[in-house]
Amino acid sequence: MIVYPSEPPEPLGQRIAQLRARRGWTQQDLAERLAASRVAVSHFEMGLAVPSERTVVLLAGLFGQEPHELVEGTNYPQAKAERLPTVACRYTEVELQLALLRRDLEWAARLGDKLVNAQMIAEWRVQLAELEQRAYDSREHALLEEVLRQVQDLCACRPPDKP
Fold first, then answer.
1. 50: exposed, middle or buried (Cβ count in 10 Å: 0-12, 13-18, 19+)
2. How far apart are CA 57 and CA 101, in angstroms?
3. Which value, to the nearest 10 degrees, does the dihedral of the CA atoms of residues 60, 61, 65, 70 take?
4. CA torsion through residues 97, 125, 150, 22, sign
5. What's the pLDDT tens digit per position in 47-61?
6. How close are the terminal C-alpha atoms of the chain, in Å?
């Protein structure tokens, strides 16, 4: 007996286009993040080309998903899907550095040493400024601006050390 699926699979290109649009990215924005051409992204979205396993892993990471989540329920070839790794990197350098900053701030608050806190915050301000220069994603810029304000607030709340 042949069992027919009740719903045809969603085109992978359509899913890619939807995920890209949700992030407010143009095809060119996505292409730059993939190190591919805008035409390649267009071809993926229109179903004229099938992304390689490498590209699916990169796409999944950019969209904050695992590779199998990205292709599940789509028309992506089963043979290619079976070769996908189970996990993909889902965090940017900015997100990693901000997580490390939060950890350091928590540690410094527990330590309670004002001199160590001041030195750490000064070092992080330099790192955050460097990250701001390298970030090109509007979401990352917003995250950095928020953290920079929080660091400024921390510095403003501290009473000056007495000599």
1. middle
2. 28
3. 0
4. negative
5. 999 999 999 999 999
6. 87
